[in-house]
Write a structure and sequence with these properties.
heterodimer; A: mainly alpha; 9 helices; B: alpha/beta; 6-stranded mixed sheet; 4-stranded antiparallel sheet; globular
Amino acid sequence: MSSFFEKIGASARAANEKTGSITIMLGQATYFSLFPPYKLRNIFKQMEFVGVKSLFVVILTGAFTGMVLAMQSHHALQNFGAEVMVGPAVALSMTRELGPVISSLMVAGRAGSAMATELGTMRVSEQIDAITTMGLNPVKYLVVPRIIAGICMLPLLVIIADFCGILGGYFVATNLLDINAGVYISSTIEHMEMSDIFNGLLKAVVFGLIISLMGAFHGFYAKGGAEGVGRAATDAVVSGCVLILIFDYILTSMMF
Amino acid sequence: MIEIKGLSKSFNSKKVLDDVNLSIEQGKITVIIGRSGEGKSVLIKHIIGLLKPSSGKILIDGKDITKINGKDLNRMRKRFGMLFQGGALFDSMTVGENVAFPLKEQTDLPRGKIKQIVRTKLERVGLKGIEDMMPSELSGGMKKRVGLARAIVMDPEIVIFDEPTTGLDPIMSDSIGELMLETQHALDTTYVAITHDISLTYKIADHVAMLHEGRVIAEGTVEEIKANPNPILRQFLEGRAEGPIKVY
């Protein structure tokens, strides 16, 4: 019986320690990102990796999400004879919810895992120790550029995902569902506000932080050779995705 | 002068270092020998401040470095260079960028000057004109040489070597030994190496200390170590499976 409680206690303690370490890393990263000198070359390199190289996958997922949304909402709205509302349904779902969430989940899978793998490999091959022994702070060199890249690039990707989703929905609605193009566009514009887009982008900033922080943290503290690096990548993606969905709920309840 | 006094370190409940006392003299090569997993790496990680001890102190020129943190610790680390076991070269950078990295980050030297220093240091370790290669294109021996060039690029007072010959063939091991002697004499630095390579130890050491079960069980010059009758030391130096050290 006592070993049962010991196990619960041990895992609770481990979870607490992890939360603490993540918070400390976030604090350090915030501190270093407030004060120059900035490692501009590293930041741009990470921006390219997180942003430019995720473009294709974000365009694809955005477009198909919008297309499916058009079909599904048409199916539901048909019952009420409200087919004209397909446009707003697609646009609002994309900008407020699916654009930020789906692109972030894709980037977490792509960039979050890669960050964890790269930093994990640097950890187990003692490259992070090497930076430390040179009297430099590895968080500043390795974590800060990744977090800045995540925070800056996710909103940009989400704008593109939103656009592709709305465009995809438009094509499906006008070509396959026989909705008038003019009606589709005007009803979309009528029902959408800037705040829908803006709040979605604010979510993207938070998700960008979550993805890069989880990727960096799990890689930074990886241990145990190749297996440990693999585990770090898995942990980065799983924790990143779960946190994205949890924070999506929290942010939605605060914003709308 | 580095003085290690009563240094102990435990991980969870396992005692890895148990009251280690050792003096490392300035301008000399000190070699710490011992079997794998006896705490050698843990010991050098304490010297450079990567780990904090459970108890005891490490005095460098009379200053206890286990008590300092943050900026002071980083300032102290600038007096050190370290060669890691696998070289620990940054694999996203070229060889030249690797060697230049400490100079670029720690000094205000102009680009041309840095390039020139990198070239001379690479020449010193016998690698001319490989600045543009990537670490993944290098052999194990070359990686260690580049690692050594990076470790000495700031002309540190103390250089620490973590298993400098592990994974190298005997000829390459010997040439690394030669290189250590050459660079140490040329720059008059303090070298601290941990190894289980006996021939390297005999070749380069001014002072040898044997670490066993977290303690220094024997120390002295190479001659003194060779003459020491301690059965554990004898078994280790002669490389026998039978003896007081049990092999599992």
